[in-house]
Amino acid sequence: MKNNKSEKSIVLVKRLIKEHVRPYFGKLLLAAICMAIVAAATAGNAWLMQPVLDEVFLNKNTKLLLLVPIAVMTIAIVKGLASYGESIYMEYAGERIISDVRYRLFSHLMNADLNFFHKNSSGKLISRFTYDVGLLRASVSTALTGIAKDTMTLIFLVALMFYQDWFLAIIAFFVFPAAVLPILYIGRRIRKISTSTQAEIGSFASLLSQIFQSARYVKAYTMQKYEKKRAKKIVEDLFNLIYKSVRIRSRTRPILESLGGIAIALVIFYGGSKVISGATTPGTFFSFITALLMAYQPLKRLANFNVNIQDGLAAAVRIFQLLDQKPEITDSPNAKEYVLKKGEIEFKKVRFSYGSKTSHALNNINLKIRGGKTIALVGKTGAGKSTILNLIPRFYDTINGEIIIDKKNIKDYKINSLRKKIALVSQEVTLFDDTIRSNIAYGNPNCTEKQLYEAAKKADAHEFITAFKNGYKSLVGEQGIQLSGGQRQKIAIARAILKDAPILLLDEATSSLDSGSEKDIQTSLKKLMKNKTTLVIAHRLSTILDADLIYVIDNGKVVEYGNHKALMKNKGLYSKLYKLQFASQKSSKKKIVNLEDYLDKKNLV
Questions:
Q1: CA distance 400 to 365
Q2: Which DSSP string do the residues of 380-431 spell out, in sequence order?
Q3: What mean pLDDT comes out for the span 257-261?
Q4: What whole-number distance in Å separates Cα of residue 86 and Cα of residue 65?
Q5: C-alpha 485: how far from its chain's center?
Q6: Is residue 30's pLDDT more than 80?
Q7: pTM passes above 0.85
Q8: SS3 of residue 264 by DSSP
C-alpha cells in the first residue's frame, strides 16, 4: 500500500513537471546556477573560519588579517546578487506555473458540458481555483525554491565537512537516517488530512455561495438559525482537521531537534578530543562545526518539505481530477461549420433522460419547425418543453433519435458554429456583474452604440436604462440584483435582439413582465421573430396565439399539434389549458386575453 502511494506521488510529480514545469526549464536553469553560487558562498563562509582562527588569531598573520575581511565582503556581495537572481527567476517560473494551471483549469471548465455544472456546485469549483491552487502554489514554491536551494547548500556544506574531517562527518550524519521513516509516515498522514480539509472547504464555499444568493429566502423563511447551525458544523470540522494537521506536523520538530542535539554533542566530544590531542587544529574543528551548524537548518527544512509538499500533492490530485474529466458533448471528427440555409429544424423519434434508466424526459418526440416560421410548445410544468429547447444548441445530446437542422444531424456541425446562429432568452435570466451595456452586448461585443440602443429600444428597455444615473454604464450587480425582475428580462431580450441570430429559442421570455409590459414587448418580439425560425415556450397562451404551429407536450410526448383554432376544435389538452387561462365575462361576453387581467377585473389581485 505504501509503495502504491509512493508510486502515485512520483507519477503526480512527473505529470506536473511534464505538463507545467517543462516550459520554464530555461528560467529554472538560471535559478539553479544562482542557487549553486549561493550554496558555494555559504560553504565559503564556513571554510573561512579555519584561516581566521588558525592564521589570524593563533599565528598572528597580518597579511590574512586584510585578505580575509576582503574575501568575506566579496563572498557577501556575490551571494547577495546570486540570491536576487535566484529569487527573480524562481518566482517567475513558480508564478507562471500556477497561472498556467489556473487558466488551464478555467479553459477546461468553459468547455465542460452543462450537465457537469449541474452536478458540481459553484462553491466547490471556486474552491479549486482558490484553496487548492493556493496549496499547489505553496508546494511548487517549496519544491522549486526550498528543496533545490537547501539541497545545493547542504551538498556544498557536507562536501566541506568531509574535506575537513571525513570520519567526523560520518559521525555527524549517522543519526539522521533514523528520522526518515517517521517523517515519511507523517507526510502520508498529512496528505490524507489535507484531502479531507480541501473537501470540507469546498463544502463550506458551496454553502456560502448558496446562502449569499438565497439571502432573501433565508430571511423570508426565518432560517437564520438553521443556516448558522449548518455553517457551525462545517467550521468545527475544518478546525478539527486543521488542528489535527498542525499536531502531526509539529511532531517533526522534536524528532529533528533531538537527533540534531545528539549529532552536535558527538561532534563536540570527538572533535574536541582531537583538538586537545593535537590531531587537528582549532580552526579546522571550528570550520567543521560552523559548516555543521549551517547545514542543520537546510537539513531540518528538507525533512519538513515532505510534510509540507503533501498538501500540494493532495490539491494537485483534485485539480487533475477536474482536468481529466472530458466533456461528453464534443465536435465529431468530421464536423463542419454550420452555414445557414433555411433554418429548418426537425426532431425524429427523439428520446432523452437526465440520468434515470426508467424515466425519460422525452419519449419518441417528433416535431418540425419550417425555416422562418414559429412553433410553440405548450404543456404542464415538467412536461419536457424546456428539454426540447435545450437539445437544439446541444446543451445535452439525445439518447436515441436525431435532431436535424437544414437536412443535417446537428452532431455533424461544429458546436460553436451552431450556437452562433442561435439566440436564447430563458425565464431564468442570467446577468453578469457588469454594466448594462456589457450585458446587452454579451452576444455581440463588437456592436456599434447605435445598434445597442436600437436593441434596447425594441426590448422596451432604453427608457428605464437612461433613468439610471450612469445610464448604460450602470452596474447591474450579481445576477442583476440592482434591477427588478422585469428589467432583467428586458435586458435579456435586448441581448437576443442585438445578437440577431436566425434561430430563436424563447423559454417563457416574458414571464417576469406584467401584462402591460408584456403587450408592449410582444410587438418587439414579433419584429425580432420575423423571418426567423423560432421556438417559443410559454405558460401565458396569449403570447403564442399567432404561432404557425403549436405542439402540446405531456409526459415527454407530443399529444397533439396544430394551430390555435384547430386545437380548440380538437377539445384536447390544449383546449383545457386554454380554458384555465381565458374566460368570458357573462355581462359583456368580452374575451379577456390574460389570466391576470381577468383576476384584476374580478378584484382578485
A1: 10
A2: STTSSHHHHHHHTTTSS--SEEEEEETTEEGGGB-HHHHHTTEEEE-SS---
A3: 72
A4: 32
A5: 29
A6: yes
A7: no
A8: helix
Is residue 54 within 8 Å of 284, Cβ to Cβ? yes
Please work out, in degrees rounded to the nearest 5, the angle formed at the alpha carbon of residue 54 by the alpha carbons of 50 and 59: 155
Write the Ramachandran bin of 551: left for phi over 0, alpha for psi from -120 to 50, otherwise beta: beta
Rg (CA), the chain: 36
Cell (9 digits) for 5: 502511494
The region that residue 328 occupies, defined by phi over 0 for left and psi between -120 and 50 for alpha, beta otherwise, is alpha
**Cα 558 from Cα 531, distance rounded (Å):** 25
**Number of residues assigned to the chain:** 605
Identify whether the C-beta of residue 56 lies closer than 8 Å to the C-beta of residue 64: yes
* Grid cell listed for 164: 575537513
The owner of cell 415538467 is: 382
Side by side, the strands of the sheet bearing 549-554 are: 422-425, 503-507, 533-537, 374-378, 549-554, 557-562
Cell 418543453 -> residue: 385
Share of the chain above pLDDT 90, in %: 14
Q: 1-6 long-range CB contacts below 8 Å, 24 or more apart?
A: 2/188, 5/188
pLDDT value at 44 more than 80: yes
Burial of 370 (0-12, 13-18, 19+ CB in 10 A): middle
The grid coordinates of residue 247 equal 499536531
Assigned C-alpha cell, 93: 517560473
